[in-house]
């Protein structure tokens, strides 16, 4: 993968992570958190899609590797919602 392809992949992951955070209502962190959420969301979302026998929707080829946009957003939203639930302060 070239440097430009890697930067494009980071940009797409950041956008997917940001959209996932917006859907979940959890917005702590900055661009780096969005990138990590985008990648983790892609793995989690793709795994869930394969487990449920769902098709890959809106996949982008970057450097010869597919990046599932929709499953990345949904996976990032799930991870962000989980972080939001776990980070809430509980009143005794």
Layout of helices and strands:
Elements: H1 3-24, H2 31-51, E1 59-62, E2 65-68, H3 69-87
Antiparallel strand pairs: 1-2
Helix pairs in contact: 1-2, 1-3, 2-3
Note down, in words, how this protein is organized.
This protein has one domain. The chain is 67% helix and 9% strand. The protein is built from 3 helices and 2 strands; from the N terminus they run ααββα. Helix 1 crosses helix 3.
Concise synopsis of the structure shown:
This protein is mostly helical.
Number of strands: 2
Basic shape: flat
Task: Kindly report how far apart the N and C termini lie.
Answer: 51 Å
Class based on secondary structure composition and strand pairing? mainly alpha
Task: Please supply descriptive tags for the structure shown above.
92 residues; mainly alpha; 3 helices
């Amino acid at each position: 993968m070239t440097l430009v392809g890697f930067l494009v992949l980071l940009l797409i992951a950041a956008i997917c992570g940001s959209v996932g955070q917006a859907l979940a209502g959890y917005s702590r962190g900055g661009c780096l958190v969005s990138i990590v959420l985008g990648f983790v969301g892609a793995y989690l979302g793709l795994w869930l899609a394969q487990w449920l026998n769902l098709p890959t929707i809106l996949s982008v080829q970057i450097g010869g590797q597919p990046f599932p946009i929709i499953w990345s957003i949904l996976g990032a939203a799930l991870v962000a919602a989980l972080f939001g639930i776990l980070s809430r302060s509980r009143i005794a």
